[in-house]
Amino acid sequence: MLLVVPTLGERLDYLEQTLASIAAQEHAGLSVLVVGPGTGDGARGLAERFGHRYVDETGRSLSAAIVQGWAETEALRADVLAWLGDDDLLAPGAVARATAALAEHPDAPMVYGRCRYIDADGTEIFTARPGRIAVWFSRFGQDVIPQPGSFQRASAVRAVGGVDAGLRYAMDLDLFLRLRREGRFVYLPHTQAAFRLHPTSLTMSNAEPGVEAAMVRERYLGPVGRALLPVSRPVFRVAAKVWAALQWRHLV
Description:
The protein has 252 residues and is of the alpha/beta class.
């Protein structure tokens, strides 16, 4: 398994926590690559302290860093691929659960699970429990499949062409929508990761992710689905609010 951690090299306290959560995983076959700026000496030092290889980025975006990491030598030997933001955390046992699930379901291209949403200080806001319906819902409405803690079968990723480096925000949704054509996803009713919401995060500091996600979704709807968009969009907006309200009910 190869796990890529793209980083800007600016939030070293978050990056340290991310790498510590990876180090706590009990999985002998896990390789980690940290992809960041050539001037990121602090991030490079952290990666080396945790025993990981640091790769100077050649692109200028998160998606480009993932593409670069997944093209490294370690990726060619890996049977499972994943990435984790430099401000997110893996839950204890996440890697072991994911690899076991993929081994049990050899036709599944991907596994995903629950995800804790935390604030800048690490305090839990709520835990998202997307369930199996998330795959269908993400195709038409809001993307509710948590990317942190999801793991993709390498052969399936290669079959669909990998991550689209031209996307800045919705590269995960785009990949998921293509992977679903390769088989049924496995849902784990366990917390797999924590997604950190803070003012400097990519999704919190930009208004464009929703626009790009809508564009990505239209790619795979087909002519009938696109024709129904004026009707379906309002319905799914309401459904998204209901889904969010249900998640809040599960505050821990």
